[in-house]
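Aim 2 progress update. The chain analyzed this quarter is reproduced below.
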Amino acid sequence: MKTKNLVLMALLIGIGTALYMVIPGFSGGMKPDFMLTMMFIGILLFRDMKSVIVLSLATGVLSGLFTTFPGGFIPNVIDKTVTGLVFFAVVMALGRFAGKLPAATVLAGLGTLLSGTIFLSVAIFALGADFPFSILFVSVVLPAIVMNGVAFFIIYPIVMQLAKRSAYQTAPTH
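Predicted structure tokens:
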């Protein structure tokens, strides 16, 4: 793993963390997770298992540290790790098609859906949190899908252009 790739991954996660921290929590402390958006961009940029593991674990730990959801650390680490690995598998299965903006945006939305479902399931069923799944799903996960999709649609082309200008070795998108 190259140092400059680690630096870009750290920048993506840092930007995601900053966005995550300025978004206010709602519905029991839940909030949309823009760290996911940056994790997905990182996975699309660096399509190797080491990078996916680093991105997923770092995103999960930071998201868990800054969560406003009671007992949300463990669910965040679990959901980001599983989501990152599943997202990576789908990206690898789709190949170059996954890097095209429309497909990548849909994948980011589906990844957010998976992440929210895993997070709520772990928080409610495994940790015994006293929150209704369906209400949180509708009030937090569905809006997060839309917000993350829009953010991804705006941010992804910018990051890809900057990566090209900086001569980063990224996954081919065309």
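The chain is about 75% helix and 0% strand. Helices lie at 3-22, 34-45, 49-65, 73-94, 101-126, 133-165. These observations will guide the mutagenesis experiments scheduled for the next reporting period.
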